[in-house]
């Protein structure tokens, strides 16, 4: 199992809405994540900095990367556009972090 951690931003006035939209996430998105080998996905909010810290265990980088091209993931990203800042032409991939210690 590969552990991944990454950081995303949430709009300052959208903390509650972000949480509401994730409780629960769409069943079809959850199914895609599971079918692509994602396990133990958790997201934490740093309210002071409007940052989301996410962790997930994946079975393979290739399967994880394939999630982004699924229809449900594309619809989810569009659904979340108004609560998460986006730059014109920006890559939707979160800012991945390197693990430094075990």
TrEMBL record:
EC number per UniProt: 5.1.3.32
GO cellular component term of the entry, any: cytoplasm
Record has Isomerase as a keyword: yes
InterPro entries linked to this entry: Dimeric_a/b-barrel (IPR011008), L-rhamnose_mutarotase (IPR013448), Rham/fucose_mutarotase (IPR008000)
Keywords: Carbohydrate metabolism, Cytoplasm, Isomerase, Rhamnose metabolism
Database matches in Pfam families: rhaM
Enzyme class: isomerase
GO terms of molecular function: L-rhamnose mutarotase activity
GO BP: any one term: rhamnose catabolic process
PANTHER family (alphabetical): L-RHAMNOSE MUTAROTASE (PTHR34389:SF2)
NCBIfam families: YiiL_rotase
UniProt-recorded name of the protein: L-rhamnose mutarotase
Naturally occurring in which organism (per UniProt): Escherichia coli
Taxonomic classification: Bacteria, Pseudomonadati, Pseudomonadota, Gammaproteobacteria, Enterobacterales
